Each structure stands twice: as C-alpha cells, then as structure tokens.
Amino acid sequence: MISSTEKLDRISEEGIRRLVDAFYAKVRRDPELAPIFLRAIPGDWQPHLNKMYAFWSSVMLTTGRYKGNPVVKHLVIPGIRPHLFERWLALFNETCGELFDEGIGEEFRVKAARIAESLMLALFYRPDRPWPPEPTR
Amino acid sequence: MTFVVTDNCIKCKYMDCVEVCPVDCFYEGDNMLVIHPDECIDCGVCEPECPAEAIVPDTQPGLESWLKLNAEYASVWPNITVKREAPADAKQFDGVPDKLKQYFSVSPGRGD
C-alpha cells in the first residue's frame, strides 16, 4: 500500500505501468473476473500487460502507441456479461485511488467509465431491449 | 456512444486525429473524415487534437444528421491511420459556415 503522501500527481508512462500491473494483479485474484481473464489469456500475461501499457498511454498521454480493435476482441470473449464491467470498473477505480491523487485518479476513472460504456453498448445493446441491461448473473 | 466529425472538417481535413486514435476508427473521404460509430470507444483523445474543432461527442444535441453521415460513409470510405499533408487551402476554409451543402464530396479519399 502506498501512503497518501506518495500518491502520483501527474500522468507518466511509469505511473501507467504501475497502475496496469497493480490492477491486473487484482483481476487475477478476483473471483468474478479471474475465470474470464484466465480463459482469455491462458499463458504468459506480459504481452497483454504490454498492450495495456500502450493502450492507457494512448488514451491518457495521446502517444498513439496502441493500435487495435478492442470491440472485436471483446466480442469473442466467452462468458462476458454486463455486470463484469461494473466489477472491472470497481477494481480499476480502487487501484487508481491507491496510486494517484484525487484529480489524476478522477481523470482515469472518467475515461475508463466512458470506454466501458462504449464497449458495453457495442456488445450488449439491442434496439428492442431496455438500456442499461438488467443484471444477468 | 461515439464521437462525431462535423461540418468544419469539410475542406480542412487536417488529419491530426488519425494519429492519436487508438482504435483506427477514422475513414477518409475526398475532403472530409468520418468516425465509424461501432469502432469508436469514446475515449475522446481525438477531440482536442482537431485544429478545426470539428469533432464532438454524440451526447451533444442536434447531431442526428452528422451521426448518420458518419455511419454511412465510414462503411464505404477507406480507413486512414497515417496523417498526410492537409489541403493547401485548409486554413481558408476553416470556420466557413455550412460547408456541407456547398463543398461536401461523397467520393472516397486515398486512405492509407
């Protein structure tokens, strides 16, 4: 645990790396998310982590380091459900709070929530059903 | 939710947006770019990059016709991920009102 005096007050590649590492360590221990992620990434996690450093670098530092199609990637994940996005966001927000000061943490949280909403719409929105979807556990 | 390219992109087409977009969701017409609404993840990185301030979130009211235009042409124009030189007269057209009616071209651009 990082003490509040050491919380990061700016966004850097190093900060992003620490966030991604700490967040996915939690994901791999989480009873709801771990089965989905471990099935999608059965072997070495480093390539995925590298991709996530690049993704968040692109989103928060506009470096253009990540190039990919996350909608298509998520479409093929077996067992993916709307309530898992909430769990993902809860863990992500918690990790941001541990690493960054309030302002920077909020910048990450706002982006993550918008991206999650966008992926959920792409995956689960149907014109004939209510939005947001009912929790289906 | 998605971001939408609007009127002031026409004849300006600066293309700064395509470099920063993490998901390569820009498509190129002869004199305008559009965003593919099903590929955009709403990260917002492109919005402040546009020198013409032509990119806006679809949560803004009154964008229905632009949303439709973006979706329609994203499916027929080529993908663009690498920036090229903006048109020589881009600056002259920056801020000209109502360019859609006068200048919009349905022809595809070069793409990558």
Topology:
The complex is a heterodimer of chains A (137) and B (112).
Chain A: H1 13-29, H2 33-40, H3 46-61, H4 70-75, H5 82-99, H6 102-124
Chain B: E1 3-5, H1 16-20, E2 26-28, E3 33-35, E4 55-57, H2 64-74, H3 90-93, H4 99-103
Antiparallel strand pairs in B: 1-4, 2-3
Summarize the structure.
The complex is a heterodimer of chains A (137) and B (112). With 137 residues, chain A is mostly helical.
How would you portray this structure in words?
The complex is a heterodimer of chains A (137) and B (112). Chain A has 137 residues and is mainly alpha-helical. Chain A has 6 helices and no strands. In chain A, helix 1 crosses helix 5 and helix 5 runs antiparallel to helix 6. The radius of gyration of chain A is 15 Å and the shape is globular. The model of chain A has no long low-confidence stretch (mean pLDDT 92). In chain B, strands 1-4 form a two-stranded antiparallel ribbon. Chain B has 4 helices and 4 strands, in the order βαβββααα. Chain B has helices spanning 16-20, 64-74, 90-93, 99-103, and strands spanning 3-5, 26-28, 33-35, 55-57. Chain B is an alpha+beta fold and 112 residues long. The mean pLDDT of chain B is 96. Helices cover 22% and strands 11% of the residues of chain B. Classes of the chains: A mainly alpha (137), B alpha+beta (112). The interface between A and B is medium-sized, with 20 and 18 residues.
